[in-house]
Amino acid sequence: MLAANGRGTLVVRSWHEADRELIVLEINDDGPGVPEDVLGKIFDPFFTTKEVGKGTGLGLTVAYAIVQEHAGRIRVESPTARGASFFVELPVTAGGVRDQAPSPAAINLDALAGTRVLVVEDEPALAAAVSDALADAGFVVDRAGDGEEALARVSERSYDLVVCDLKMPRLDGMSFYRAIAATELATRVIFVTGDVAGTDAERFLEESGCRWLAKPFRLGDLLRAARDVLV
Predict the structure, then answer these.
(1) Is the pLDDT of residue 49 over 70?
(2) pLDDT band at 142 (very low <50, low <70, confident <90, very high)
(3) In the structure, what pLDDT confidence band is assigned to residue 120 with cuts at 50, 70 and 90?
(4) Are the C-beta atoms of 142 and 130 separated by less than 8 Å?
(5) The predicted structure's pLDDT at residue 187
(6) pLDDT in tens, 32-47
(7) Average pLDDT estimate for 196-212
(8) What whole-number distance in Å separates Cα of residue 203 and Cα of residue 210?
(9) Could you give phi then psi for residue 124, rounded to 5 degrees?
(10) pLDDT mean over 131-158
(11) pLDDT per position as a tens digit, 161-183
């Protein structure tokens, strides 16, 4: 807004749509808006229109995942040169906006309480969301910001499971995996990543046989994957 107008007005409002059993939150700005060719990509992982070093391209991806985890929807509207409006729709009752997947509480993880997990993720918001979901499910969680820090962690203590991003600074997920490939821990790694089609990452995931989830993913899907890997 500042770049477009030298000033800005941000309007936040909410209302209850009784006929659809929704609570709607709208965040509206009077900035430059969102170009039409960007609208379809705006929630994609690592997609950003900001300059290099100014954004990770994960902010809206994290928002998308959080809203989905609450059985809701998020969408954007941007009339030409009239700013942008984001709408978050959340159901008032179970099943609301879409068919609700089983919540993490419905997944039987009792036998895994106390299991130690290492979350390797360089995006702080996503790392926090994943770590909190695992901790709420009874796991004991440690975090590492990249593969190099993760190697230091696994050399200091044993872990039952690793949830690891593929693309990270210093040492990426593939290099981290190769460093632990000869250990039993290598059979208990879940990777999370963006688009891998036709890339080295796709070939790596096929060869390693590791479980992986595409960003943005539902936290409930991560818990189910953790259960499947550990049981």
Answers:
(1) no
(2) very high
(3) very high
(4) no
(5) 94
(6) 888 777 777 777 765 5
(7) 82
(8) 11
(9) -55, -45
(10) 93
(11) 999 999 888 999 999 999 999 99
Phi, psi of 185 (to 5 degrees): -60, -25
Structure tokens belonging to residue 38 = 């960007």
Parallel, antiparallel or unpaired: strands 116-120 and 73-77: unpaired
Q: How far apart are CA 178 and CA 150, in angstroms?
A: 13
- Asked whether 199 and 176 are in contact (CB, 8 A), the reply is no
3-state SS of the chain is CHHHHCCCCEEEEEEEECCCCEEEEEEEECCCCCCHHHHCCCCCCCCCCCCCCCCCCCHHHHHHHHHHHCCCEEEEECCCCCCEEEEEEEECCCCCCCCCCCCHHHCCCHHHCCCEEEEECCCHHHHHHHHHHHHHCCCEEEEECCHHHHHHHHHHCCCCEEEEECCCCCCCHHHHHHHHCCCHHHHHEEEEECCCCCCHHHHHHHHHCCEEEECCCCHHHHHHHHHHHHC
**For range 186-194, the mean pLDDT:** 91
The torsion defined by the Cα of 220, 199, 229 and 95, in degrees rounded to 10, comes to 20
Q: Which two tokens stand for residue 145?
A: 């910001």
Q: Which residue in 152, 180, 177, 157 sits closest to 166, CA to CA?
A: 177
Distances (CA, A) of 128 to 132, 158, 208, 213: 6, 21, 27, 17
One-letter amino acid at 212 equals W
Half-sphere exposure of 180 (CA within 13 A, CB side): 25
pTM, to two decimals: 0.58
CB-CB neighbours of 49 under 10 Å? 12
